[in-house]
Amino acid sequence: MIEVELFTANHIIRGLVETSGERLNDILNDQRQSNVLLEDVRMVRLLNIGNVQPARIFKVSVGKSAILFTRPIART
Fold first, then answer.
1. Three-state DSSP class for 68?
2. What's this model's pTM, rounded to 2 decimal places?
């Protein structure tokens, strides 16, 4: 599993994605799946950044078509 941040038009979604040894880029470009499943999620609306704490959600399925930008989070 890797930690990622997904940016949509309205939200920043941070959570863990099961890669099964694949690169994140391969998962996002896999046309057989139209969604990305994230676990241990923290999500906040872009308009609320800094004003409210991110919502904590167990699992979220995000449609790939809604994703504008993705970045892996390096673990230290």
1. coil
2. 0.86
Which top CATH class is 2-72? mainly beta
Domain layout of the chain by residue ranges:
2-72
| Long-range pairs, 55-58, Cβ under 8 A, ≥24 | none
How many Å apart are CA 67 and CA 56, to the nearest integer? 19
pLDDT tens per residue across all 76 residues of the chain: 899 999 999 999 999 999 888 888 999 999 999 999 999 999 999 888 888 999 999 999 999 999 999 999 876 5
Q: How far apart are CA 9 and CA 66, in angstroms?
A: 7
Q: What 3-state DSSP class applies to 21?
A: coil
How are beta strands 2-7 and 69-72 bridged, if at all? antiparallel
Helix (H, G, I), strand (E, B) or coil at 17: strand
